[in-house]
């Protein structure tokens, strides 16, 4: 699994902490020339750089398809994230299919890979979205979020068998449903998803963000087989910098007790103490990985 670290504009060097996988935010490309130039030139620095251009939906700023494609071309992106609507399977399916119907053969095919984000407000709608996207040959990557799986799968988390971890400890120490946000995605991937379908339809998975980065402990043998792990292409998160800005130090035994309420301030200049805290969080995350 490759890791894409998201950092403030003035600390983009921290994005190279794990690998040369980058999740780039379209709205920052549109508003910040320094940010856009950094990623437009990143392949000169790293020949193996792989750029995913996000559609801004998670930030509540879903961009127009024409803007997404224009920015993808300008920064030499490798992959684009199709339109999605939080927790709404029907709208996400409709918008993604409309986007691909209009642009795939003339603009996307042979130029960019595509990621379609799984959405749904309950298990039935979430799996409907999954089934639509896994069979669509125009889609390369299935994006699996971190917030939108708790409603569909929370009730099943307590019924699942969780070997190798002290679930009582995690439930007691984590706050505000942090345990269920974290374990719902693990449950979906470990107990519901059919990896044979991914193989059949030639799909990979990408994990979008995290409620608690301690989750990364679970993507390993014996939780998953080596073959299954090969289908989890990557994971992106702003967690290290977001926690540092909130003065939160990752705890090796549980990660963060609750997700910071303040979103990452991209225009923030990290002072020395905050950068050092961010580096500690990155180091801790590397231990989990």
In one word, what is the shape? Answer: globular
In the CATH hierarchy, what is the class? Alpha Beta
What's the total count of β strands? 8
What portion of residues is helical? 40-55%
When the domains are counted, the total is: 1
Protein structure class: alpha/beta
Question: What can you tell me about this protein's structure?
Answer:
The protein has 289 residues and is an alpha/beta fold. The chain has helices at residues 26-31, 33-40, 42-45, 65-74, 89-108, 123-134, 150-157, 167-173, 178-192, 195-201, 226-229, 239-245, 272-288; strands spanning 2-5, 21-25, 50-54, 79-81, 113-117, 141-144, 204-208, 232-237. The protein has a single domain, classed as Queuine tRNA-ribosyltransferase-like (TIM Barrel, Alpha-Beta Barrel), CATH 3.20.20. The chain is built from 13 helices and 8 strands. An 8-stranded parallel sheet has the order 1-8-7-6-5-4-3-2. Helix 5 runs parallel beside helix 6 (123-134), helix 7 (150-157) packs across helix 9 and helix 12 packs antiparallel against helix 13 (272-288). The relative contact order is 0.14.
């Amino acid at each position: 699994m490759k890791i894409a670290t998201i950092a403030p504009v003035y600390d983009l060097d921290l994005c190279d902490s794990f690998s040369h996988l980058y999740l780039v935010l379209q709205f920052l490309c549109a508003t910040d020339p320094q940010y856009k130039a950094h990623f437009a030139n990143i392949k000169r620095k790293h020949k193996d750089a792989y750029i995913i251009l996000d559609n801004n939906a998670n930030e509540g700023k879903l961009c127009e398809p024409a803007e997404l494609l224009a920015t993808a071309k300008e920064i030499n992106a490798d992959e684009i994230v199709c339109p999605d609507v939080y927790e709404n399977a029907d709208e996400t399916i409709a918008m993604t299919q409309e986007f691909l119907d209009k642009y795939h053969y003339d603009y996307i095919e042979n130029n960019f890979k595509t990621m379609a984000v799984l959405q749904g407000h309950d298990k039935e709608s979430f799996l409907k979205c999954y089934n639509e996207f896994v069979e669509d040959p125009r889609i390369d990557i299935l994006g699996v979020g971190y917030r939108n799986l708790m409603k569909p799968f929370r009730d099943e988390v307590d019924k699942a068998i969780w070997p190798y971890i002290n679930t009582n400890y995690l439930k007691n120490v984590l706050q505000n449903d942090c345990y269920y946000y974290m374990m719902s995605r693990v449950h979906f991937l470990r107990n519901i998803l059919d990896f044979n379908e991914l193989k059949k339809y030639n799909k990979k998975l990408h994990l979008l963000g995290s409620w608690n980065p301690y989750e990364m402990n679970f993507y390993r043998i014996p939780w998953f087989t080596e073959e299954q792990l090969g289908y989890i292409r990557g994971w992106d998160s702003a967690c290290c910098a977001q926690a540092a800005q909130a003065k939160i130090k990752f705890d090796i035994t549980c990660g963060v007790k609750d997700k910071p309420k303040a979103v990452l301030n991209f225009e923030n200049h990290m002072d020395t103490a905050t950068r050092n805290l961010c580096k500690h969080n990155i180091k801790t995350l590397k231990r989990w990985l």
